[in-house]
Amino acid sequence: MTSQPTVAVGILSAKEIHFTLTGIFSTPGEAVVTGPQTVRLSEGRMGVEWNGKISHDIEFVPTSADGDTFELEGVTIGVNFHWERKENQRFHGSLRIVCHDGTLTAINIIPAEDYLVSVISSEMSATSSAALLRAHAVISRSWFMARINSPRALKAPVAKKASGEVIRWWDHEDHDIFDVCADDHCQRYQGIGRATGTAAASAVADTRGMVLTDADGKLCDTRFSKCCGGVFERFESCWDDEPHPYLVPRRDWTDPMDFPDLSVEENAVAWIEGVPEAFCNTRSERILGQVLNSYDREQLDFYRWEEHYTTARISHLVNTRLGTDLGDITGLIPIERGTSGRIVRLRITGTKGEVTIGKELMIRRALSESHLRSSAFTVRKTEDGFTLRGAGWGHGVGLCQIGAAVMGERGYAYEEILSRYYPGARLTRLY
User: Fold this and answer.
1) Are 351 and 315 a contacting pair, CB within 8 Å?
2) Percentage of residues in the chain with pLDDT exceeding 70?
3) Range of the domain at 249
4) Are residues 237 and 291 in the same domain?
């Protein structure tokens, strides 16, 4: 590959889409298009209706790549998370609107490096260290390059290992008309409004075309999460059972090999209910502000946290989220833990039955209105329900964003950050 690719990013889906073209755009049949626009789903839900015409799709192309932008109204961020909300967002590049599955989808077509500037600005802050921004530029580029080079329409697999046991994981969403989505389910891409200053653009430019590859030259699957909780989780605990040699357990500290076997229940309980040293063990507002947007900081208990459930609440959550009726929940029993202490298989017992669920995201979804912070938790039975004491935020695989932010503040180079979280991976220039 000698030049950067373009990326198709799915932004929103609706039956009616409102947007404003700032600058001069063109589209088939219209030499000049500018200003406020509305497209609607046609009668019969078979096409895109705009200016009295109906087509399967329509694309608005800027005549100036640098100056022309478009603003989409009512973009949902934090889909299915507790901070879910709508906002207007502004973008560079082309806007394609496609009729698909009875709705309209707005897709931003943009050069890869421009896409990355927005990703880094949406995932990070302009106040972040240059090392953190460069490290994140590399892993974000590696991640989406792996996506666009893989087959689309990869479904979330489901495996039922035995009667009364459901093991499920979610991976590359079923994006069959675009490469990646714009939300946390892929990587945050919130337009150019958050790309303030020059730090993010400089980090992307400084690492142009750089990705991580494994020993065979294959693009690394560069997963990342907000806070590992002190030890990295392995890939197999969260997704399919194929090991990734660069996604392995390490301690998020100066000695990466100094940690107990957290797959052992008593070790996991002691680790989670303790407060061991780790890079990601920080409550510094300045450092957290590098990684977390304002809505991410609506609560600051990431490294260690506690959640209390009444019997009524946990029973309602479990029965609703799993679509079953276990009655009143009587037990939450860890059956298998991963390398970070995250629960991979959890047995849930009730007055009407029991079920064992996994992997980690299914557990997090079953015990929360959106997503429990992580599946690295202990369970204490109380008089009126359960208390969970937990560690970390997210799946804990790959780069720990808060840990990497601390490393950057302490003077580690971006290459050192990458080698810490993806041991054995190699920096490679694609273009």
Assistant:
1) no
2) 92
3) 221-405
4) yes
